[in-house]
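quick one before i forget lol
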Amino acid sequence: MVDNTKDYLLLLTMYKYKLFNNIADDGINILKGHNFIEDNTNPEIILLRSKVLSDNDLNDSLYCIGRAGAGTNNIPAAEATKKGIVVFNTPGANANAV
C-alpha cells in the first residue's frame, strides 16, 4: 500500500505572500492555483519590482524575497541572509512591461 500522506499534506499547505508592486493577473492566478494566499501582515514570501525594502520589512516568518527584474539593490540582502531569508531575482521577467 502506498502512503500518500506527505503529498496530501503538501496540498493543504498554504503559502502567504505579499506584493509590493503590481504583477500580471496571470501571475496572481498561478499563485492562487498553487495554494498561495495574499497576506499583507505576516507573509512568508515577498514579491516586488521597484519597492525599496528596509530591515523592518523582514518579518520572522519570511522565507524568501523575489524581485521581478535584474539586481537586488532594493533589498537589504545582507540582513536577509543573516536571517536565513533567500533573496533572488528574475532578470528579464518584467521585459514585457518596458
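fyi The beta strands are 15-19, 36-38, 45-48, 64-68, 86-90.
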